[in-house]
Specification:
alpha+beta; five-stranded mixed β-sheet; 28 helices; 53% helix; disordered N terminus
Length: 622
C-alpha cells in the first residue's frame, strides 16, 4: 500500500504549485466569485446561506469562517473528494502532467491489474445497463423497476443493469471484446465451474457498486423470481471490491453528507434509490454487512454524525446494535431512527413524502438513549437479569466514547433512567478497560469553551498569526520564547510545529507543515492565519509588542506565585519583598512602554486583531 514516503517532499511541493487552488476548487463544482484579492463561495462543507468560504490565490489557501475548515489544494481534495493524501497527490500530478517516482515492479504490476479490472467493470456496467434499457428480453426487468417506482432519471443516474437468464452471456460478450476469462474471474464477474466459465449474475436487476471516488468495483444483484436464491447477491471480494471498505452510494452522497454534516445509513439498495429520487441525497447503505472499522474511518472523513435508519421490526432492532461501537470509537455521533412497523425507507418515502421522512430523521435519538428506552419499553427493566444486560450493553458503548465530558453526561443519563448507582456504572467501565479515574465524585473536569479568548490568549493568537504569515521571524522568536509558555494548548501545538520545522532550516515552509500535519484542527488554525486579507503592516513591531505583553503576563504569574507561597509558608522576609518589588517594576515598565507606543501609532485594523473565528478551533475539546 502506498505511503507518503513514496513521493519526495520536493515533488509534492512541485505538484501543489502546478495546481492553482482556484481552478481546482472551481472544477470541483464550487461556484467561486471574486471579492477583492480573494474568492468567495457558499461553503461546500456545511450548509449556509451567506458565503463564508474564502480562497486566496496569492497564498493558495482556502478557509471557511463558518465551519473553520481550511488547508491547501491537497487538503481540499481530501476533504471534498474523500481522497487519501496519496490519491490527492496522484490526481493532481496527473492533472498537471507531473511525473511521479517510478514504483517497484510489484507495485507497478498491482496498479496495472487494478487499472485493467476497473476498465473491465466499466465495460460490464455499460453492457448490463444497455441490456436493461433496450434489451428485447428485459421487459420484465423494466416493469419490475417501474412497479417499484424507479423513474428513468434514477435508472440513468445509478446505471442500473440487467443480467439475462443465459449463464454465459457476459462471458461471450466480454471475451469478444478482448477480455480474458481470467480477468473476468479476477473481477468477480464470472465463476469457473465444472461445465466451464459461467456468469455470476443471471436473471437479476443489477446495482453497480462504486468506490468513494466513483470508480465501479462490483455489483449487487436482485433476483427477479422467488425461486432464484439468494434474493440479493453481491460481487465476491476482489482486488477492487471489499464490502467491509465500501459504502453503497457514497460516491454520489459524499458532498451532500459533507454539507449537511450528517449521513443517513439504510439497509438496502432500493432504500437508497427511493430516498435519493425524493431529494434526500445524503444517504448510503452498507450492502448487507455490519459496519466495519474501515467503514467508520471512511465516514469520519466526511461527517461527525450518522443516523441509522432501520425497519420497525425485531431484525431491525438487532441490526441497529451491530458495528455501531466502531462509529462511536471514531468519535462519530450515532442516532437511531426507526420506521413505523411494517415500513422501510423505500415504502415510507413513497407513501408519505420526503418531508415526513425528514421529520423522522430529526426525531432520531442517540444510541444510548435508544438502548435505554428500548429496554424500558419492554416493561421488564426491573428484572435483575434484564437490567444487568442493559448495563453491560450501555457500558460497551460508553467505554468507546473518547470525549470525557460527553461520556460523563451519558453516565448521568443512564443512572437516572435505569435507577442504578453511578459508582456501579463507573466500575463497570473500569472493568472494560477505562483507565482514567472517573468516579462520580471525581469525574473528569469539563473544559470550558468560552465565546472569546482571554486577553493573554488574544496576544498568543496574534503572535502565532504573525509567525505563520512571516515565517522568517520564527528563528528569532524561538530564542526568546518557548512554546510551552503559550497557555492555549492548540496555539502551543501550532507553535511547536513551527519550532520543529525551524530545527534544520532557517526558512520555514508553511505549506510543507500543512502537508505533513495530521491534526485537522491545527491545519485549520494555520489556514485561518494565512487567509487574512491584509498582510501585517509591521511584523517586527507586532512581534516585539506581543513578546513584551506575554513577558508581562509571565512576570505577573511569577509574582502571584511567590506571593502565594510566602503567604502559605508564613514568611515575611525582606528578600521576598525585594523580589516582588523588582518583578512589579519590570511588569510596570512593559505596560508603560506599550501605552507610549499605542499613543504614538495608529490603531491596528479590526481584521488584524480579530480572534472570534479562531476560538472554536483552538478551544475545541477532542
Amino acid at each position: 500500500m502506498a505511503t507518503r514516503n513514496y513521493i519526495p517532499p520536493e515533488t509534492i511541493e512541485e505538484i501543489r504549485t502546478q495546481n492553482n487552488i482556484v481552478d481546482v476548487i472551481s472544477e470541483s463544482g464550487v461556484a467561486l466569485k471574486q471579492a477583492g484579492r480573494n474568492y468567495q463561495a457558499l461553503c461546500p462543507f456545511h450548509e449556509e446561506k451567506t458565503p463564508s468560504f474564502s480562497v486566496s490565490p496569492e497564498k493558495q489557501i482556502f478557509y471557511c469562517f463558518g465551519c473553520q475548515t481550511g488547508g491547501n489544494v491537497i487538503h481540499f481534495l481530501q476533504k471534498h473528494e474523500g481522497k487519501t493524501f496519496i490519491e490527492a497527490i496522484e490526481w493532481l500530478a496527473d492533472r498537471a502532467n507531473v511525473s511521479l517516482p517510478t514504483r517497484d515492479a510489484k507495485s507497478s504490476a498491482r496498479q496495472k491489474l487494478i487499472n485493467d479490472l476497473s476498465e473491465l467493470n466499466r465495460f460490464a456496467v455499460k453492457y448490463y445497463h444497455e441490456l436493461l434499457r433496450t434489451g428485447q428480453h428485459s421487459q420484465h426487468a423494466r416493469e419490475y423497476l417501474k412497479n417499484r417506482g424507479v423513474n428513468s432519471q434514477t435508472n440513468q443516474l445509478f446505471q442500473l443493469g440487467y443480467a439475462k437468464q443465459q449463464r454465459r452471456d457476459l462471458v461471450k460478450a466480454a471475451t469478444h471484446e478482448g477480455w480474458t476469462v481470467q480477468q473476468l474471474v479476477d473481477a468477480g464477474l464470472i465463476k469457473n465451474e465444472d461445465q466451464g466459465p459461467q456468469d455470476r449474475f443471471w436473471n437479476r436487476i443489477l446495482f453497480p457498486i462504486y468506490n468513494a471516488q466513483g470508480g465501479p468495483v462490483g455489483f449487487g444483484g436482485r433476483a427477479l423470481s422467488d425461486e432464484h436464491q439468494p434474493k440479493y447477491l453481491n460481487s465476491p471480494t476482489t482486488v477492487l471490491y471489499d464490502k467491509s471498505r465500501i459504502l453503497f452510494n457514497l460516491d454520489k452522497a459524499r458532498q451532500s453528507i459533507s454539507r449537511k454534516q450528517s449521513a443517513i445509513l439504510v439497509e438496502g439498495y432500493m432504500d437508497v434509490l427511493m430516498l435519493h429520487q425524493h431529494g434526500i441525497e445524503n444517504v448510503i447503505a452498507s450492502s448487507g454487512t455490519s459496519l466495519s472499522e474501515e467503514h467508520a474511518a471512511l465516514l469520519k472523513r466526511y461527517t461527525p454524525e450518522v443516523v441509522i435508519v432501520f425497519d420497525g421490526d425485531a431484525s431491525g432492532l438487532q441490526a441497529a446494535q451491530r458495528g455501531l461501537h466502531r462509529l462511536i470509537g471514531e468519535e462519530i455521533r450515532v442516532r437511531i431512527a426507526l420506521m413505523p412497523k411494517g415500513d422501510d425507507p423505500d415504502s415510507y418515502v413513497k407513501q408519505n413524502g420526503a418531508d415526513a421522512f425528514s421529520e423522522l430523521i430529526d426525531k432520531a435519538i442517540n444510541l444510548i438513549e435508544f438502548q435505554i428506552q428500548s429496554a424500558i419499553q419492554e416493561k421488564n427493566i426491573r428484572r435483575p437479569d434484564v437490567k444487568t444486560q442493559v448495563v453491560k450493553d450501555i457500558s460497551a458503548i460508553l467505554v468507546n466514547i473518547k470525549n470525557r465530558v460527553e461520556r460523563t453526561e451519558y453516565v448521568k443519563y443512564a443512572v437516572k433512567e435505569l435507577e442504578i448507582e453511578e459508582g456501579l456504572l463507573w466500575r463497570e467501565l473500569r472493568d472494560l478497560g477505562l483507565k482514567e479515574n472517573t468516579t462520580h465524585r471525581n469525574a473528569p473536569s469539563q473544559k470550558t469553551t468560552s465565546k472569546k479568548l482571554s486577553p493573554r490568549e488574544q496576544i498568543e493568537w496574534q503572535l502565532v498569526q504573525v509567525l505563520i504569515q512571516v515565517p522568517e521571524l520564527i528563528s528569532k522568536v524561538k530564542t526568546l520564547l518557548h512554546y510551552q509558555e503559550i497557555t492555549n494548548p492548540r496555539l502551543a501545538n501550532v507553535m511547536q510545529l513551527l519550532w520543529d520545522a525551524s530545527e534544520n532550516e532557517e526558512n520555514v515552509d508553511i505549506q510543507h507543515i500543512l502537508n505533513t500535519c495530521e491534526d485537522e484542527t491545527l491545519k485549520n488554525i494555520i489556514s485561518n492565519a494565512l487567509i487574512r486579507k491584509k498582510n501585517i503592516p509591521n511584523p517586527h513591531a507586532r512581534i516585539e509588542g506581543c513578546l513584551r505583553k506575554l513577558k508581562s503576563f509571565i512576570l505577573q504569574e511569577v509574582e502571584q506565585r511567590i506571593r502565594s507561597n510566602a503567604l502559605a509558608e508564613g514568611e515575611d522576609d525582606i528578600e521576598k519583598l525585594k523580589e516582588l518589588v523588582d518583578l512589579s517594576n519590570q511588569r510596570r515598565a512593559f505596560v508603560q512602554k506599550d501605552l507610549l507606543e499605542q499613543t504614538g501609532n495608529s490603531s491596528q485594523s479590526d481584521e488584524d486583531t480579530d480572534t472570534p473565528q479562531i476560538t472554536e478551533n483552538i478551544e475545541k475539546e477532542n
